[in-house]
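Run log // design_07
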């Protein structure tokens, strides 16, 4: 490897390295602040800021949420609750989904630049089982991308990283992320919109609400619809046009 080639490779990996380092540092420095207890403690100041500078508060919230996602900091669920608490179910869900999508896109682009492009090219050039796996992924990208967003068991960071490593186009990733996270974002945003009463009672919200049957079953239904084209193609035994 020549010096110029090594320099270019290092430059491609730099964004991913910075995100990783920022995530580690942020987890140590901000871990205690990205919590429900912190939100409860500072809720009055946040509401006052929103009421006096609504546009700045909305823009700042989206930016900070996006950065938290990009650096994979803990507390993404609390951030979603905060969006609902400050801005209501609507437009709070729009702010939450936009911020999460922006942060996810940052991880995707950094991973694709640092590792994904070369790895996907190697998979395309390989033979045997590896190539078949890559061909299967390429044939069902839309469906698989929606599935990993709709199923609440897939960690958000994993769902951002894996598509970059298998050569998913950025447009498909961005669209499926923005639309796929909406159902879950709506659940937690609406929960956040009711935090005022929870604060008054001195309670904490049930963050496991998404696994309750009344929430989980519709999400699984959407996931089944997303998987339906793959099942039909498998039954027909042919590749999509």
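design_07 sequence
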């Amino acid at each position: 490897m020549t010096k110029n080639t090594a320099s270019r490779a290092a430059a491609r990996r730099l964004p991913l390295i910075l995100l990783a380092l920022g995530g580690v540092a942020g987890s140590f420095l901000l871990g205690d602040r990205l919590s429900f207890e912190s939100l409860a403690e500072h809720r009055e100041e946040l509401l006052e800021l929103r009421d006096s500078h609504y546009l700045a508060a909305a823009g700042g919230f989206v930016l900070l949420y996006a950065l938290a996602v990009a650096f994979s900091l803990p507390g993404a669920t609390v951030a979603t609750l905060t969006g609902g608490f400050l801005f209501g179910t609507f437009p709070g869900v729009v702010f939450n989904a936009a911020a999460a999508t922006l942060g996810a896109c940052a991880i995707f682009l950094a991973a694709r630049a640092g590792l994904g492009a070369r790895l996907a090219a190697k998979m395309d050039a390989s033979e045997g089982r590896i190539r078949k796996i890559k061909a299967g992924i390429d044939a069902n990208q839309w469906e698989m991308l929606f599935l990993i967003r709709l199923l609440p068991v897939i960690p958000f960071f994993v769902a951002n990283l894996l598509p970059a490593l298998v050569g998913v186009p950025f447009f498909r990733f961005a669209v499926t992320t923005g639309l796929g996270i909406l159902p879950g974002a709506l659940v937690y945003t609406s929960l956040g919109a009711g935090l005022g009463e929870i604060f008054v009672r001195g309670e904490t919200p049930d963050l496991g609400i998404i696994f309750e049957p009344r929430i989980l079953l519709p999400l699984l239904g959407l996931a089944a619809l997303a998987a339906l084209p793959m099942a039909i193609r498998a039954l027909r035994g042919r590749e999509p046009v």
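The radius of gyration is 20 Å.
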